[in-house]
Amino acid sequence: MVRVAWPGWWFGLLVGFGTPVAAQANVAPPRIELKENYPNPFFPTTTIPFEISQEVCARGHQPVVSLRIYNVLVQMVAIPVLTAGGSARPVGGERLDSLRLRCGEYHAFWDGKYLDGKGEATPGVYYYQLTVDGERFTRKMIAQRKVTSQQ
């Protein structure tokens, strides 16, 4: 009985299963890509890159985009600003709060200050969440104070 089972098993291995590389070839590129902030860990400022693919902007559609920073208690602490031309500093940038954007690559800048502008972010873990037409993408970042040597 064992002899009959072995040929069927080998045949299943040879024909029935594809290679992992073949399975990966069918993966579509992401429509929205929220990238890692830099520097990470950061203090006091950071830049958050993201990309909206052309597929999202079919037939002239401009998606509504928001980017928010949350602390570990899921309290919104900041709304970054859109930078001009991928620069590290905002040049007359708008807060990324329900903006209609064209497809392409963008950079957002957070100065490390809270929404009220009075306090600076404390060291710890923060989450940034990009919302594009109601679809959410979230990543983690770390605020860390620079260590100064004392002499």
What's the total number of strands? 9
- Average pLDDT, all residues: 82
- Please give the count of helices: 2
Residues in helix, %: 10-25%
Helix-strand makeup class: alpha+beta
The biggest sheet amounts to: 5 strands, antiparallel
How many angstroms does the end-to-end distance come to? Answer: 80 Å
- Stretches where pLDDT is under 50 for at least 5 consecutive residues are 9-16
**Helix-strand topology string:** HHEEEEEEEEE
Rg over CA atoms, rounded to whole Å, is 23 Å
Percent of residues in beta strands = 25-35%
> So what's the overall shape?
globular
In short:
The protein has helices at residues 2-15, 20-25; strands at residues 32-34, 46-52, 64-70, 76-78, 81-82, 99-100, 104-110, 124-132, 135-143. By secondary structure, it is an alpha+beta fold.
List keywords for this structure.
globular; 2 helices; 151 residues; 13% helix; alpha+beta; four-stranded antiparallel sheet; five-stranded antiparallel sheet
Describe it for me?
A hairpin with a 5-residue loop joins strand 3 and strand 4 (about 75-80). The strands form two sheets. Strands 3, 4, 6, 8 and 9 form a five-stranded antiparallel sheet that branches. By secondary structure, this protein is an alpha+beta fold. The chain has two helices and nine strands; from the N terminus they run ααβββββββββ. Mean pLDDT is about 80; it is low at about 10-15. The protein has helices at about 1-15, 20-25; strands spanning about 30-35, 45-50, 65-70, 75-80, 80, 100, 105-110, 125-130, 135-145.
